[in-house]
């Protein structure tokens, strides 16, 4: 059933179209089709009878749609198919010879049904939508999909069921390879900032209740974080039971079982059955999906015959067209300015129309012009000055590779030493341990890192008396947490281990981890690890600059298995691994490599109460005396993927 209308858009209107990052600064040639016909709100039936609102954009001339069959670009979204940015991007693609289909997901905006995040319906809904598309008499049965974040997750869901006609995907900063290791949980810890921040931002889409809307306008996520964990019927999400139900399930569900193996929350379990089609995986070092983007590229490359392509930039979530991340500037080359339009068009023209071959950049910034399957940005190498926007110039360069990790990678242990050293040399037998007190009532604040949602949008910096971005390499900014004016390294509940000033540049590109020998006074606690590029003092930064490169967390009860929790015996020594996000950074001569270890990172992750009670349902909190052992018998180490410096 169609409930739509026809709109004709001229080439002049199309010239102002932007994409997911807003208007592109790149001037494009005139599109081949002078107008676009939009038929909005087709109510497309799903297999269970629910109908999803769907808009169709068609190339047009002389007031009529062109009488040809075109390949299709499909975008499914929880963020309103009629939003200006999405509709403008759809019109632009249509003007370049594609039928473009944009759909509201189940239970949101104009679509029927009940919304649940990462729901089991998403995959069959996508399958049924592709089936509906290929039956249209004005399309060729070749469907490509695009989208960022949840828009990438919906693509992965469709591909898991391999519908006929689906030919290619462009997955940008999404896809959710495994919700237990990122996005819902992170190695056992709950991704509080992501999940509660997202629920707060989307609640308005599912409620017309004036009191709820008033509360959303009066309160931000930062007002909700301190009152967690939530209890059923006693929290702001109770106004929308479907949101409350899915959120509480995430908050309280810890074991990796059928819940986390479900098709809406997992791709890794479904790689084998996924459609064997070319895919472009786009991620950022400061993006919350970074490890999943790389995992999907690697595993699908292994089990599929179709080519997989990986592009990893220095970006925060959705920041592909920007040259900066948080408080650092990476240089103009870091940005793909035409990302929302021409970048995608190069891929789809090559894969769906057989026109040319795909290259990430149209300006020849890669010397050979024919990149391998991996294109990545190695951060660092800048002069450290403060630029006109107040950001530290960290710099970097693009590189191509044939594999990940890169050929020639040397996984090298930097051992934690008594007195706070960090060296390749093994510790002595008498180098003992370092201890700190972790109090869940006073957690270490989130400062910088790879995340999305509310945290990415920034927080209030008491020192600067201004709002600022928190994601990326920020060293300042507090959001929903205590403010006491200290750098994290100055806190008594943070252990610092760092190298001497480097005699020469060191490049770290690849997977990063910390192998720690630990003990605790508590039956359960968390251990966090943060890799920091420590700039020396300069005229622009007299106190130096602590640049968060990457970090990670491990909930101790899941140290040996993610499927079954095993509490600790207080005082007993255990070996565990903290998996940090992958990265690519050049630590320059004169800088130091620092590892910061603690037990909290709030509000990015929920503070562990240290009691060992069921997750999300604890009744009290207690401080934990946590110990990192680093003598020869227990050689804790930071494991870095070193690259040869040419």
Describe the structure.
- It is a single chain.
- With 646 residues, the protein is an alpha+beta fold.
- The chain is 17% helix and 31% strand.
- It contains 12 helices and 32 strands.
- The strands form 7 sheets. Strands 1, 4, 5, 6, 7, 8, 9, 10, 13, 14, 17 and 19 form a 12-stranded mixed beta sheet that branches.
- Strand 11 (185-186) and strand 12 form a beta hairpin.
- Helix 3 (122-134) crosses helix 4 (150-160) and helix 5 packs antiparallel against helix 8 (241-252).
- The termini are far apart.
Q: Report the major sheet.
A: 12 strands, mixed
Helix content: 10-25%
Low-confidence stretches: 16-26, 457-470
Rough shape? globular
What Rg is obtained from the alpha carbons, in whole angstroms? 25 Å
Question: What would the keywords be for this entry?
Answer:
seven-stranded antiparallel beta sheet, 646 residues, 31% strand, globular
SSE map:
Elements: E1 6-10, H1 11-14, E2 18-19, E3 22-23, E4 35-45, E5 51-61, E6 64-65, E7 70-77, H2 84-95, E8 99-104, H3 122-134, E9 139-148, H4 150-160, E10 166-172, E11 185-186, E12 189-190, H5 192-202, H6 210-218, H7 221-224, H8 241-252, H9 258-261, E13 279-286, H10 290-303, E14 308-316, E15 324-325, E16 328-329, H11 339-352, E17 374-379, E18 392-393, E19 396-401, E20 410-416, E21 422-423, E22 433-438, H12 454-457, E23 459-461, E24 466-468, E25 495-498, E26 506-520, E27 526-535, E28 545-555, E29 574-587, E30 592-598, E31 624-629, E32 637-643
Parallel strand pairs: 7-8, 7-9, 9-10, 10-13, 13-14, 14-17, 16-18
Antiparallel strand pairs: 1-4, 2-3, 4-5, 5-6, 5-8, 11-12, 15-16, 17-19, 20-21, 20-32, 22-31, 23-24, 25-30, 26-29, 26-31, 26-32, 27-28, 27-30
Helix pairs in contact: 3-4, 5-8
């Amino acid at each position: 059933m169609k409930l739509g209308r026809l709109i004709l858009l001229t080439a002049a209107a199309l010239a102002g179209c932007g994409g997911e990052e807003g208007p592109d600064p790149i001037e494009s040639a005139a599109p081949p089709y002078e107008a676009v016909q939009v038929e909005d709100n087709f109510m497309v039936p799903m297999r269970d009878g629910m109908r999803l609102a769907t808009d169709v954009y068609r190339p047009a001339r002389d007031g009529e749609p062109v009488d040809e069959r075109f390949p299709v670009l499909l975008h499914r979204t929880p963020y309103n198919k009629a939003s200006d940015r999405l509709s403008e991007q759809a019109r632009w693609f249509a003007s370049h010879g594609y039928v473009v289909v944009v759909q509201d997901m189940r239970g949101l905006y104009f679509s029927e049904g009940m919304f649940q995040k990462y729901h089991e319906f998403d995959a069959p809904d996508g399958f049924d939508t592709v089936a509906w598309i290929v039956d249209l008499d004005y399309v060729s049965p070749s469907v490509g999909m695009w989208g960022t974040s949840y828009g990438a997750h919906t693509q992965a869901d469709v591909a898991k069921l391999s519908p006929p006609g689906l030919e290619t995907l462009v997955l940008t900063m999404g896809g959710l390879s495994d919700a237990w290791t990122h996005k819902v949980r992170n190695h056992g810890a709950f991704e509080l900032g992501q999940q509660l921040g997202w629920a707060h931002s989307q609640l308005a889409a599912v409620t017309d209740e004036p009191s709820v809307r008033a509360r959303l306008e009066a309160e931000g996520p930062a007002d909700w974080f301190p009152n967690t964990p939530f209890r059923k019927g006693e929290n702001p999400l109770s106004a929308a039971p479907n949101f409350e139900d899915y959120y509480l399930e995430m908050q309280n569900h810890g074991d990796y079982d059928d819940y986390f193996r479900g098709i809406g929350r997992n791709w890794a379990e479904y790689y084998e059955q996924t459609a064997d089609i070319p895919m472009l995986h786009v991620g950022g070092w400061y993006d919350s999906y970074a490890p999943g983007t790389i995992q999907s590229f690697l595993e699908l490359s292994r089990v599929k015959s179709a080519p997989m392509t990986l592009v990893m930039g220095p970006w925060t979530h959705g920041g592909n067209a920007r040259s900066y991340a948080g408080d650092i500037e990476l240089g103009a080359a870091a940005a793909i300015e035409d990302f929302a339009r021409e970048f995608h068009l190069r891929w789809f023209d090559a894969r769906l129309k057989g026109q040319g071959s795909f290259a990430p950049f149209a300006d020849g910034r890669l010397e050979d012009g024919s990149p391998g399957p991996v294109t990545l940005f190695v951060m660092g190498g800048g002069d450290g000055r403060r630029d006109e926007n107040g950001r530290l110039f960290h710099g970097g360069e693009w590189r191509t590779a044939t594999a990940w990790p890169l050929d020639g990678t040397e996984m090298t242990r930097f051992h934690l030493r008594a007195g706070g050293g960090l060296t390749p040399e093994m510790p002595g037998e008498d180098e003992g341990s370092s201890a700190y007190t972790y109090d869940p009532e006073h957690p270490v604040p989130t400062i910088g890192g790879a995340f999305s949602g509310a945290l990415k949008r920034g927080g209030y910096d008491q020192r600067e008396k201004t709002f600022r971005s928190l994601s990326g390499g920020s060293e300042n900014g507090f959001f929903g947490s205590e403010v006491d004016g200290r750098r994290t390294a100055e806190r008594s509940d943070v252990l610092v281990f760092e190298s001497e000033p480097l005699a020469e540049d060191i490049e770290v590109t690849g997977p990063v981890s910390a192998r720690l020998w630990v003990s605790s006074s508590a039956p359960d606690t968390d251990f966090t690890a943060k890799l920091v590029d420590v700039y020396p003092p300069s005229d622009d930064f007299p106190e130096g600059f602590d640049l968060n490169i990457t970090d990670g967390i491990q909930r101790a009860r899941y140290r040996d298995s993610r499927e079954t929790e095993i509490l600790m015996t207080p005082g007993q020594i255990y070996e565990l691994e903290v998996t940090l996000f992958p990265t690519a950074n050049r630590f320059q001569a004169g800088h130091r490599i620092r590892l910061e270890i603690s037990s909290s990172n709030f509000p990015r992750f929920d503070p562990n109460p240290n009691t060992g009670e069921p997750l999300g349902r604890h009744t009290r909190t207690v401080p934990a005396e946590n110990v990192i052992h680093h003598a020869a018998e227990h050689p804790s180490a930071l494991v870095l993927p070193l690259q040869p410096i040419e």
